[in-house]
Fold each of these.
Amino acid sequence: MQDKESAPSKPSVIRPLVFLALLGAIILTVRYFQLDQYLEKERLRQAVAGYGTWGPVIYTLIWVAAPPLFLPGLPIGLAGGILFGPFWGVVYTIFGATIGATLAFLVARYLARDWVAAKLSGTKLSTLDEKVGQHGWKIVALTRLVPLFPYNLLNYAFGLTRISLLAYAVSTFIFMLPMTIAIIYFSANLLDLVRGKLTWGVAVGIILVALVGLIPFFYKKLRAKREMLSLDD
């Protein structure tokens, strides 16, 4: 979603289409150049396991650095599922992403308030403190479950609000889990799909991503219904 108040809702439709187009292009490329042998997930996971604890440590540190440095999270998450599998991929991702989000929060609160305030000026996020004052941690939960705002900028924005560090960190951890589980489980089976194999793991991963992706749609429907009921009253 765009930063400006008048941002349209089209990107919510365009992004999944772009992702599907890219995925289709990757599958066609792999099949055309016969790259299947280099994309065996077990071989890749064994190679990463050969580095011992350094593999998980480096991956987690990348996630810690991603939110403060505005690095895109989706490619990192996809790599986590591919390299570490559905269980450990979720573990390393959720802890790394939560620590990174908390680090950005602390930078905004104690080191770069003016810079963050300037970034938020004129956007919907400029009213975040008022909403946090009314609803507390529920606003963190909502923005994690319904990704209507830029994730990395949102982490900084919460640092300017009155929410406590503990409430922010716990809410971020808990309510990022659904999206994290869906993305990691999907990516853990992504190489099967890229190699042209439609397994049960691939099917379940697609369903999970679709269900989580529908949360903003149902949220908007519920919100519109509540507004209509309030007008009737």
Amino acid sequence: MLVGNDVVDLHDSESRPGALHPRFDVRVFTPDEREALSASASAYPLRWTLWAAKESAYKVAKKLDPTVRFLPRDFVVGQIAEGRALVMHATGPFDVRLYRTDRWVSAVATLTVAHPSRTRGPFSAGRVSAGPTGAGLISTAVERLATHSADPSRTVREFARAALASRMNLPPWQVRIAADRGIPVAFWRDRRLPVDLSLSHHGRFVAWAASEAPATEPAA
């Protein structure tokens, strides 16, 4: 199962409304999404929830088609409700799980089996009618950097490596995370693990998501 994730630090200086380019919303969001932002009493967290949903869906789309570029308005948030969003794209649709605290928002996307004809439509609130996605097979976590000087790329790999090692009953030092054309992949010794992985970091936070790996030693 392919997975993509994103995290946004809501208190990072880059996230504050005054730091955004005046045309940021126009470049990033569809007219329906902008209308929802204008009508929302919580536009600030909603803006970054929409962004995280788009970014996480893009990471799955990139795995499906390496030629896909991140053009935010091409990733259309058609519905969002109950901690879940539905994002449409030529490679989708995508089912996105949403998580939020007063410090960060995070999104984890998988490819949904819902038929595209059932998912077209403007941004709306209400029950999401996507098909089953197997979201229960996904592990995810958001962690805070220990210090401002910590390397977020290295830190998120360490967190993900420890989690995968624990899940698969392996010594952490035997698990390695590398990049394949910019996409993170996990190895046990020199064998690629049967797990799909996504990593993200922003501001003070790092996040990882992975499809569940077997609880036994990887097959030879």
Amino acid sequence: MRMQGSVPFRGGGFAPRAVPAAGAATLIGLIAVWQLASWAGWLPTLFLPAPQAITIALYRLAVSGELWTHLSASLARLAIGWSLGTVAGLALGFAVGLFSVVRSPGMAVVSALFPVPKIALVPLFIIWFGIGEGSKIATLAFGVFFPTVINTAGAVDNVPRALIRMAQGFNLSRLSIIRKIILPGALPAILSGCRITTSVAIILLVAAEMIGAEHGIGAFVLAAGNLYDTDNLLAGIVVLSMLGLAVSWTIGRIERALLGWR
């Protein structure tokens, strides 16, 4: 009697793994191609400086201290504006997801105001809060608030109702159900939404700083562009890109810390 071979396991499902080395290699490869194209003369340096020139510009900005002056101003605005918008958005999003009395009025207001381009409201915020920090922080908080509300309410709605009914069947209190079932079930989607809102906040930060700011990465990029100083302009854009990568890495670490139970 012939023995049959073992059947390969087919239940792994779709579980893509992150390979940081592959991502780093891709970025390094693109930069290398860019540098080689500049050396070969295929890219005019006036319009697109080589990575080497951008690196030199970043080094000079760092040594002079100008980079840290602009970066610290932008980081402070980003932290305050994003935190205010996120906290307020989480509060309303959970209220919309949990309470019928808030759901329809809250979503009506959010749906009416969310499509409004937040950049168009910057002049209005300047009238309300002045040309200083208030208008810039308000722009960031307003832009982060609405997607956070929508994402949080959707995350709460997607928590399996069978788990909630089971908890109610065991006579758990409403607070216990929220803390032990709804919050853990909604947390993955909420943290994924934070990745989006941080990107939105960085975009709005640059726009607000370009309109009226003495210090900040957005103001620096605008000044470099007005002078056709493409080396510093691209250096500022690289700083913004690195800022986005740093924020994304931080949120990823938070996800691994809070969602280890998955």
